[in-house]
Amino acid sequence: MSSYFIIVVLLFIFSSAKGESLVIGSPQIIRAAPHDDVILPCHLDPPFNVEGLTVEWSKPDLKPDPSDRLSRVEYVHLYRDRREVTDMKLPSYVSRTSLFTDDLKHGNISLKISNVTVADTGRYRCFIPKLQSRVKESVVQL
């Protein structure tokens, strides 16, 4: 049994007793071939409606553009105010990412990436900043 799995189970048991939902991503590496569509799984357990919350998907290994004085993070996908926010999105992901918006009410924050490229390889972070929980994020490897 992997240590990641044991940690997730222990966090789930402890947090469930307190009524918190945890952000859970896949512990498995997600594989895709170029031009495939892929889903990066991420959800809340127990399920919790996140339609009114911000959901951020980013690549934590990317550093902000040094020419950006404000050191802003660009997102793979950003959902805020019940809609996708495209002006803070990495250009290579524009028109290629989506959430399952009908399933947000059930805690599904999985990200679909269309037309995968080799440059998409890496770690992805799903994060709900205002979730009332100690586990607000998870990392999924593509």
TrEMBL record:
GO terms under cellular component: external side of plasma membrane
InterPro entries (UniProt xref): Ig-like_dom (IPR007110), Ig-like_dom_sf (IPR036179), Ig-like_fold (IPR013783), Ig_sub (IPR003599), Ig_V-set (IPR013106), IgSF_BTN/MOG (IPR050504)
Pfam families: V-set (PF07686)
Name of the protein this chain belongs to: Ig-like domain-containing protein
Compartments where located: Membrane
Keywords from the named record: Disulfide bond, Glycoprotein, Immunoglobulin domain, Membrane, Signal
Residue ranges annotated for the Ig-like domain, each copy included: 36-136
